[in-house]
Amino acid sequence: MQRESTEAAHAAGLRQRIGELCSDYMVDESLLEPAPRVIAVVDDVLTTGAHFKAAQLLLSSRFPGVAVYGIFVARRVPEAGDIGSFPAES
């Protein structure tokens, strides 16, 4: 789950790196019985995929070997200039 509400990724002027986004998420340990066999992350809009990749990274590290899928209601197609403004992972 996300620790606190944040501005929509497509509206934010500066995009966070995937590692930075991971720190915004946490696993609610009270919901882990029984342990998951498959995990689905549901989001309203897929823009660059960074938020999903951050959630997938966090969940995969907590549940090694468990498949993590993304389910998105809509996809925003970035303009050509949007792609270059996304920071590379360091």
Structure report:
This protein has 90 residues and is an alpha+beta fold. It has one domain (18-84). Helices cover 26% and strands 20% of the residues. It is built from 3 helices and 2 strands, in the order H-E-H-E-H. The chain has helices at 18-22, 50-62, 80-84, and strands spanning 38-46, 67-75. Strands 1-2 form a two-stranded parallel ribbon. It is globular, with a radius of gyration of 14 Å. The two termini are 24 Å apart.
How do you describe this structure in short?
Helix content is 26%, strand content 20%. By secondary structure, the chain is α+β, with helices and mostly antiparallel strands.
Features:
two-stranded parallel ribbon; 90 residues; 3 helices; 2 strands; alpha+beta
Roughly what is the average pLDDT, rounded to an integer?
79
Contiguous runs where pLDDT drops below 50 for at least 5 residues: none
**Domain module count:** 1
By helix and strand content, what is the structural category?
alpha+beta
Task: Note the run of SSEs as H and E.
Answer: HEHEH
Task: Report the sheet-strand fraction.
Answer: 15-25%
Helix count, DSSP H or I runs of 4 or more residues: 3
Q: What is the CA–CA distance across the termini? A: 24 Å
Radius of gyration, in Å, reads 14 Å
Helix content: 25-40%
